[in-house]
Write a structure and sequence with these properties.
- This protein has 3 domains: 9-124, DNA Polymerase III, Chain A, domain 2; 126-231, DNA Polymerase III, Chain A, domain 2 (Roll); 245-292, no CATH class.
- It has 7 helices and 20 strands.
- The chain has helices spanning 14-24, 76-83, 138-148, 195-205, 245-262, 298-325, 343-362; strands spanning 9-13, 38-44, 47-53, 57-64, 70-75, 91-96, 105-107, 110-112, 132-137, 152-157, 162-167, 173-179, 183-185, 189-194, 208-213, 220-224, 227-231, 268-273, 276-281, 289-292.
- The protein is elongated and about 90 Å long.
- The N and C termini lie far apart (134 Å).
Length: 363
């Protein structure tokens, strides 16, 4: 895809060219592969297209700017050198030194070497099956990333409201932030990104962007005026924990307080069990007290009461059956009757009573 022209020379606004290169050059590869370690320029009749990619993302800018007609793969070092300069509105001359394929491109006083390795067919890298679209204010989406400095972000694209889960280097979800959307259409999607690359993609679009998502495993497209950017997602969506910063700080304090009790640094009362936890710091307490209860589910705790009720109902039923038979104490099949008291048993009782009376009189 490299078609270099013969010797040509044009004058161009130096600041506009430097700004255009600054928009795309951060997304080229550092050193390898060689055909990605630079910026690919396509110029035709006053329209300049610049493309840069490192394999994870790709930036493409179209700008109305004079440039020698043809296609050039400009090596990264010369691009960086020119893009960091300021020309205060002055024009610079851009020209080829000669018609040789390996001859550099002179941009003012900067010599930019050209790479001969063919550039990638970048249009094929852009998916065409996007079905979710959101128009956003990029600053409001960048703010949570700047504040929490996460390693990874997970974005929930939803008609009910977009969310961003921010994951730290340690793999902990440190925040969940609502993301304002100016317009949303399409099915809900969840996509995870490298936080730094996601932030740069948003920043490169300017104040506003249209975000398009198709297959969550394929690149996401960010579009702005005369500019588009695609970004590959990453595997592993952050844990979706929606805890505010104040709640997170409260939990952190509770963990630190419990650790102080465990180490004996502060006395307290700790109750654990039944699916509940209670901690009370008590400076007036001499020693720490730990109370443990067997954890039980609510249903299991209610089971004994239900058993007792069933037992009482069974007892009542047995009483009713006994009353119907006329002898509640008798067992089924037992036809014996209570024995009648005998005369001997009566006399024995009378003698015992008289003996007790005589003892009382002697006392």
């Amino acid at each position: 895809m490299i078609q270099q022209t013969a010797t040509a020379s044009v004058k161009v606004d130096g600041d506009k060219l430097a700004e255009a290169l600054r928009r795309v050059s951060p997304f080229m590869a550092d050193e390898s592969p060689l055909n990605l370690a630079g910026v690919y320029a396509e110029s035709q009749v006053g329209t300049l297209q610049l493309t840069a990619s490192d394999g994870y993302r790709m930036a493409h800018l179209t700008v109305a700017l004079l440039f020698p007609d043809g296609n050039f793969l400009m090596k990264g070092q010369g691009v960086k050198d020119f893009s960091t300069r300021h020309y205060n509105g002055a024009e610079v001359e851009v020209r080829r030194t000669d018609a040789l394929p390996d001859s550099p491109l002179l941009m003012g006083d900067v010599s930019v070497d050209l790479e001969q390795t063919p550039y990638i067919n970048y249009p094929d890298a852009v998916p065409d099956n996007f079905d979710t679209e959101a128009i956003i204010d990029t600053k409001t989406w960048i703010k949570p990333i700047r504040q929490h400095k996460p390693e990874q972000v997970g974005v929930v694209y939803s008609s009910a409201g977009c969310l961003m889960f921010l994951q730290s280097h340690e793999g902990e979800t440190v925040a969940c932030e609502s993301l304002p959307v100016q317009m949303f259409s399409g099915p809900d999607k969840k996509v995870a990104y490298n936080a730094g690359r996601f932030r740069r993609a948003l920043t490169s679009c300017g104040a506003g962007a249209t975000v398009q998502v198709g297959d969550p495993a394929r690149p996401t497209l960010f579009e702005a005026e005369d500019y588009w950017h695609i970004l590959m997602p990453v595997a592993g969506f952050p844990r979706e924990i929606a805890i505010s910063n104040s709640e997170r700080e409260s939990i952190k304090w509770a963990v630190e307080a419990l650790e102080a009790v465990r180490k004996g640094e502060a006395p307290g009362l700790v109750l654990i069990g039944g699916g509940k936890f209670y901690l009370q710091l008590d400076p007036g307490r001499a020693v720490t007290e730990i109370r443990l209860e067997e954890p039980r589910l609510a249903g299991a705790a209610a089971a004994p009461a239900q058993t007792q009720v069933a037992t009482e109902e069974k007892g009542d039923k047995d009483d009713e059956e006994g009353a119907d038979s006329g002898n509640p104490e008798s067992e089924p099949g037992d036809t014996s009757e209570d024995p009648e008291p005998t005369a001997d048993s009566g006399e024995d009782s009378q003698e015992a009573d008289e003996e007790v009376a005589e003892n009382d009189e002697q006392q």
